């Protein structure tokens, strides 16, 4: 029976911007084949989640599927949260709310906020340190929700090819082009600007592991975020692009299993 051994772990996988649970299909298969329990999530208005982007009114609502799963974990079950890219911000919210349930949080080429600064700083840093044409052919889409008018983004096919899946198999790029949905960065959400939201007692108490994809263009920014959170364990995967779950799924799966066995 899946997950029945005492050494098995429950991995919760959280996708990045515009993506969904579908992007983890290789890693899910590999981890489950080794007896681990794995839950890949669709955050609100992502993947096959039924909500439309303008029906998700806050970053908390966007992250609610993750918060619900962590809250529902049985007493004594220790989770390994795994966040990719923008998904790291949702991880931080779950870590602050439920630190006692989380054995470790794994940030994969992800936005990793730090105690004492607002979580939106990671998005601000990316904008400051990236070239003006970073988003290439991505589209901006006007939306309106309870917080007022805003803008969603849909990652373009050329952006995905050059900045996401450059070293991944061609079929994974094709899959991504077919399944990405518009996403909201929630830059004006009050939660993104609250520098007291993440506390040392909760968020800061959870063991953090940062996975660097060595062929990702944002390696410098990753090191900067790591430096802001002393004590973060760092792992590197050579030959991996941003879509590390597609370009190096075996190496990623093995590393996640190792992390799961290390932190109880």
From TrEMBL:
Example GO biological process: jasmonic acid metabolic process
Classification via InterPro entries: AB_hydrolase_1 (IPR000073), AB_hydrolase_fold (IPR029058), MES/HNL (IPR045889)
GO molecular function, one term: methyl salicylate esterase activity
Pfam family, one: Abhydrolase_6
Positions of the AB hydrolase-1 domain: 12-254
Entry protein name: AB hydrolase-1 domain-containing protein
Organism: Oryza punctata (Red rice)
Lineage of producing organism: Eukaryota, Viridiplantae, Streptophyta, Embryophyta, Tracheophyta
